[in-house]
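Q: Can someone sanity-check these two? First one:
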Amino acid sequence: MLGLPLRSHMMCLAALATVSVMVASCGTDNGPGALFVDPGRYDAYHCNDLAARWKALLEREKQLRNLIDRAQEGSGGALIGTMAYGPDYDSVLTEKKLVQRRATELKCELVPVYQSDQTIR
């Protein structure tokens, strides 16, 4: 195709597909990862389940952010990092929104609030 090597052509198609998915999901209120996450996924979860999932999502978000940052250190790494980890990262952010929404509906605390059983004297 116009003398482009196959590898370059495939990278262009992959980039176009990624951008298309991101643009298509911009209209949703759950974020760019909404196409990859079922909005009713957490309907049957209770407070303890939501808190555990929240903790796992925070850890996964941190891992993906580190991978994206590390990929950006190399030449061309920004594009590769975004293509490789971007959809997962967007899905995690969308899941976090859904967990927060469900926790609000159930009036749950995602981060435990610790109280002492001792009074100040």
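And here is the second, same format, sequence then tokens:
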Amino acid sequence: MASGGTLPSDWGANLFEQLVDESLDGIWACDGELRCLYWNTAMERLSGLPGVRVLGQNIVGVLAGLVHGDEGPALRAVLEGAQGLSSARRAAGAEARVFRTHYLAVRSESAEVVGVAALVRDVSVEDRIAQVLSETDARFRNMADASPVLLWMSGTDGLCTFFNQTWLEFTGRSMEEEWGVGWAENVHFEDLEECLETYRAAFNERRVFEMEYRLRRRDGEYRWILDRGTPRYTPDGRFAGYIGSCVDITGRRNLEVDLRRSIEARDDFLAVASHELGTPLTALRLHVDQLRRNFRTPAGVVSNEGRIGAISHEVERLSRLVDTLLDTTRLAAGSWRPTIERVDLGALVQRLAVDLSPMADAAGCPVEIEIQADLKGNWDRGGLEQAFTNVLANAFKYGAGAPVEITIGGDGDVARARIRDHGVGLPPEQQQMIFERFGRAPHTRGYGGLGLGLWIARRFLEGMGGTIRVESAPGCGATFEIALRRDPAALEEALS
């Protein structure tokens, strides 16, 4: 008996019979001649054979009618002293059942093997589950190996346990070589530390990550890889490791390098062109002034003023275009730094409205200004003038024929200006686009311009710790709100 107590002597046999008869597992026993001596109730249920038909029969023959395969060798091995033998057999006939049998030797008081006992369990459900899992795993591996992207998996310890065939063909290495952290041997030494640190940080926090690094291909060339890893979990919510996918982005990276070089070349050209165009523009202005003096009558009237005015207007247009290009190159190169001085925002906007009145009159846009508070702050005057000029010019262009309303307000910390037009407007999905360099809303391309004005305004304002945003809807005009921090300390912090 097992430790923990002693049963009364008359309990032993009865208790054993009750246990084996109530067991959910089938139990049978045979003697040394392989004659069946015991066949419990569970065996009757599993086999469909009553004990009276089995007892005394050769157990090998009985089992042959129940399962595929010969159990004779296993039984004889147990009789010869083998221990812990088990077998799994499918049921004979059309039944899709599987039985697992565990054999143990029955010994006499002198320890001689005198028979065999067996525990039989129906494991059909477990077998079907195992088959489904095996098929699922096989499908996953087939799909993974057929995938054009590089796939990997890691366990709960962070070590990689799987790489698909695409990965192995890319690196020219075996699964054993890549296993664990072996894959890191192919990462470029300049990228390795950041690569591993990104992975470790994301792994510890159980979050999705993306990283780019160079991975050596089988031909020795390093290729840029975009690696995206995602934590995976078991159905009951337990963390199971990571799964990741990698794509070769070398082509994209090369295009980005070429694009950056092209942009730098373009900005260099614009910078040179802007400076070079400034000299003839100055000369043109002087010639226009000379023409006015030459055509001025003794009565002070300028004859041919219409033509001279048209020339002057085009010169000013060209001058504004050159100034825009110059501002663009300065901002793109990061060479502009604000010169801070005390500025009265209301007075600045009022003066700009007067200076831009010819543009407003030409567009048919009466300008209405409401100053709600005396707002002074420490800003760059030139940057503010350029930013407000660009926003007002935008309002005159797209809100032609309707008033443009300017409201200046704010509080002790922030100054705000709202510039509202009643023009074409734009949908929400296009509102961020207009603040990008060369950004143009699709339905406004017929209005002309380079798509730089609002980008320049945003960059000047951000350089002073300010912001600009727009509220708009198609056909309902647009309202631009400019917010500027007035606190010198806050501005210094923004510029540091």
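A (reply): Looked at the second one. Residues 1-5 have pLDDT under 50 and may be disordered. Residues 328 and 456 are 7 Å apart (CA to CA).
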